Amino acid sequence: MLEKFLLIVAILVAFVVGYESLSDIGVFNERGTFKELVLDEYLNKASGKTFDEISITNHNSRDYERRSSKDITVINDFLSNFNKFQIVETKETSYFKYTIYLSNNDTMENIVIHILGDNLLFVNINHLAIKEDKEKKIKTYKLVDNRHTYKIVNDSIDFNYLNQLFYSLSEDE
Which of 21, 22, 51, 90 could make an SS bond with 27 (beta carbons 3.0 to 4.6 A apart)? Predict the structure, then answer.
């Protein structure tokens, strides 16, 4: 009886250790393109299906300067630049270099992308969850966020592009 118990414990320990080891090397992590894992997740859950503003904070400057634009062409160019990235979820972390906000100001929903390095992104997807109690005729609005850190595996961040984009935007006051 004790032998069976010890065998079961040994199997469970082996399973947990094996799962953790596989998880640490990324076997179970989400993989896909930036469009699939970030943009499509936002579009599937958000009430506002478009972005009407892009803002960038430069964490490399002394005073964390922030600039923005409501030009749809600028937003679309940025998205097409990032949508090509193949990404995999990771546990790595680092300091912020740039923070990019893609916002829908009507619904207050957004995607916040923190650039942590040449190939590291911390992404926060904020979408509106609406619950409706038809009996009481009450709607409840709640902003829900999903956070993930991704490693770019097919390319790297073009900091020249980000720098040019940043300085092409209007200064926030």
Answer: 22
Please give the structure tokens belonging to residue 113. 């992308």
The set of residues, in sequence order, having a beta carbon less than 8 Å from that of 107 and lying 6+ positions away, is 46, 47, 48, 128
Nearest to 48 by CA among 127, 144, 124, 147: 127
Residue in this structure with the two tokens 């740039």, named with its chain if needed: 98
Give a yes or no: residue 14 inside a domain: no
Is the full-model pTM beyond 0.85? no
Residue 15 lies in a domain: no
Taking only the tens of pLDDT, the chain with its 173 residues reads: 777 766 676 677 666 655 554 444 445 578 999 999 999 999 999 988 999 999 999 998 778 899 999 999 999 999 999 999 999 999 998 889 999 999 999 999 999 999 999 999 999 999 888 788 888 788 787 778 889 999 999 999 999 999 999 999 988 65
Q: Identify the burial level of 114 via C-beta atoms within 10 angstroms of its C-beta, where 0-12 means exposed, 13-18 middle and 19 or more buried.
A: buried
Residue 83 included in any domain: yes
Q: How many domains does the chain have?
A: 1
- Amino acid, single-letter form, for residue 139: K
CA distance 69 to 64: 17
